[in-house]
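Late entry, evening session. Most of the bench is empty. Finally got around to the prediction I had been postponing all week. Sequence below, unchanged from the version circulated by S.P.
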Amino acid sequence: MFHFLWDYVVVFLIILTVVVFVHEMGHFLVARWNGVRVEVFSIGFGPELFGYTSKSGTRWKVCLLPFGGYVKMFGDADAASSPDLRVEFSAEERRVAFQCKKVYQRAAIVVAGPLANFVFGVVALAAIFAIYGEPVTEPVVGQVQPDSAAAVAGMQPGDRVVEANGETVDRFQDLQRIIRMTVGEPVTIVVERGTQRLSMVAQPRITEVKDALGNTHKTPVLGIVANPEATRVVRHDPATALLGAARETASMVTTTLTGLGQMLSGQRGTEELSGPIGIAKTAGEAAQFGIEAIISLTIMLSINLGLINLFPVPLLDGGHLLFYALEALRGRPLGARAQEYGFRIGLFLVFALMLLATRNDLVRLPVWRFIKGLMS
């Protein structure tokens, strides 16, 4: 029981706290830099468990419900940073009120949260590359599974993949990413076989596979295994580590956006979405692999949090940025009613997404599969 609580609860809460703290610290630092008074810096929601008030007047606290956090600035009506349009500020209060700052200042404060998550992800990933090195697997086929998509296409052990769907393949990881983003359509693959350069078309097959953390996913597969002798660890200096980390972050963002776009268009199912339960399960499994897996998961969640918060949905940072863009174009803020309805719509969308993700998490639990087996 102790190991279960540590791996699946404590480690999850530590990861979540780090990611949320980084995000909110981005908002806080840029807000203070622009002269905004920050009233509350909270990790979690609900009743306060403990905290203290700094000399600047900010209440730093940890609350009972640890799923998220917020920075409440002077002039905000609530933790979601919706403006308090009913208050008339004095001249002194206008100097430190968030809503009285210029549009570009408010936009900078809002975008600082997601940006902090990206910076943290890149720097932490660069540190891993510099300390441990970056594992790189050459795109050389070591084994072709019988009757697989690759076998039907004519791939053979020893083939070196150089291109897939028009994209250059430098690493086996590149090929995996390209195949993973397909949704059943054929893939044109170019391989080098000895002195020959051959082009072939493969039809990836949707298969249930387990990832490194033991989670089962339905994903397109070619049916090939990399040559185990083609894996090397690239040692980086600080500069190349940062470049490599930035490249991996960009790839992660592109893959996420492509997957979400496919979900919205109906090409890909929404069962891949995960909520707090799924993240806690993944955190527990990462804890069993060691500190490097925990750090890697923290980096991934930080980047995803930064990306999701930039979506133009009211209630998220991207929704605030959308309002500020409209304000800059119109020369004046949106009316109170328009903003109120915008935040209501945003709340509904976020709540609906959380319900869908939580439903997916529950369906993946072993107890659900057990009940489903009994009923069938």
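Two things to note before I forget:
The chain has a mean pLDDT of 85.
The longest helix spans residues 2-33.
Will write this up properly tomorrow.
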